[in-house]
Fold this protein.
Amino acid sequence: MSDINLFTAARAKKSLGQHFLRDERVVQRIVDLLRPEEGDQIMEIGPGPGALTALLRPLPWSRLLLLEKDDHYAAEHAARPLPGLEVVAGDALTYPWESLEGPWKIAGNLPYNVASPLMWDIVSRTPRLARAVFMVQKEVGDRLTAKPGSRDYGALSVWIQSFVAARKGFVIGPAAFSPPPKVDSAVVVFEPLPEENRPRHPEELSRLIKLCFQQRRKQLQGILRRALPQPFVLEALATLGIDPAQRPETLSVPQFQALADALFSGKNHA
Ligand code: SAM
């Protein structure tokens, strides 16, 4: 392990997806993509031994919140207090994102086993996400940024892109970590969409895209007929100008949002 961490790393725990960054240039690029500014509220998910935290600590933020599931690392960070620094020892999967007041920038080299559900919650439940930069498995990065019609386009793509503009920052190989993961990694940047472009009925959208992408090779009419009365489905598709024979993977993000509104938020169906 190189010495870019804030303190010595303990033996990595596989169950917590611990692959620690050892390349300071990579860490600096993540911080640059986060674009920290004076007075920001910044959260880091999974600081571990603190490679990223070491670069965040000297910045002129107003609050720095570290959320770490591993008690050992949470205690190490808590032992290095700073005004405005808060350490939460807990599971990011159960964090009350709704409680974050004001704008927050969120960063993290995410544990790969929980990255997708975590980002699903963060984009949809954080009241004022200002920006987010996450390191994820490269394949997850491909899904987050996938466009309609591509192999990687699925429920995660539609959901994330309903709330944020997602783009890939850069891709790095296993050698940047200790211990090295088996896969390449990608850093993704999320910039929130204007309120009017976000889903009006998120729960209905979530239901629709989960339903659709369980059977992505089937036609929309066949998939939806199993959940809703057929005449109603056909009428909604016609109103939106969507061919009932289309497959879910060909629908754009705004089309999914409009379809969710039409299908699941009215009172005309069973
Ligand atoms: N930030 C460090 C770095 O880049 O070297 C560590 C990154 S490591 C890939 C993931 C970190 O997330 C570990 O510190 C791990 O303990 C923590 N972690 C794992 N699961 C977590 C969860 N559900 N909630 C919060 N932290 C978690």
Remarks:
- Residues 16-21, 45-48, 51-52, 67-70, 73, 91-93, 109, 111, 114 surround S-adenosylmethionine (CB under 6 Å).
- The longest strand covers residues 129-137.
